[in-house]
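Fig. S4 source data, part A: sequence.
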Amino acid sequence: MHLRPCIKSDPGSYSAASTILPWENLIISNTDQKHPRCGFYTLNLLLLIIGIALWVVNPSCLQVLHKITPRISSDLGGHFLGIYLISIPLFAVVVFFIMEFLTWLLNLKRDKPYEPDFTVDDNRANFWSPIIVGYAELIMYPVAFVFERPDFIAAWLVLKVAGQWAGWKGTGQGIELSLSRWRYNRFIFGNALNIMAAAITYAFMKMAGVFA
């Protein structure tokens, strides 16, 4: 057994994934199919490297951020953007594994990143669609704090809830009703994590003195 090189052999091999923890799927052998987690980890690594570089170099060209909002110190634009870009991949990975664990804990087998009846393209879309939304929130929420417009977060949450409310009403009975409730609870928890991530990012920005 060895660390999975970001590829897998058969989508159907995940049909028994509910019996193990999500991160145990990182172990596999005899693989020949690209695994979407490669792109996820690569993107996060690139953002982390760029963020650290901006923090260290603090280029003077980023004084333009002070013109966008006077709250950002004119000589600390690199530190601001560095913290911003560092926070995105760090919290993206943390939230990803927390949500994977919650999916396993609530036994939401239908929401696994891989489904045996899905095509390769279906699995990729199923994997990336919530992650893209998560990235968008990790980008938007700290900006809402910086511009002191938390009402934007509330408006975004209303939009998200309105778009998925029909699937959460629980029109079925028994396990279907329970699944609807569990998915809704997971949705609320995931949004709470992203809001907390934005608040922590904003707090670190204030501690670093990037605001004028």
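Fig. S4 source data, part B ends here. The chain has a mean pLDDT of 78.
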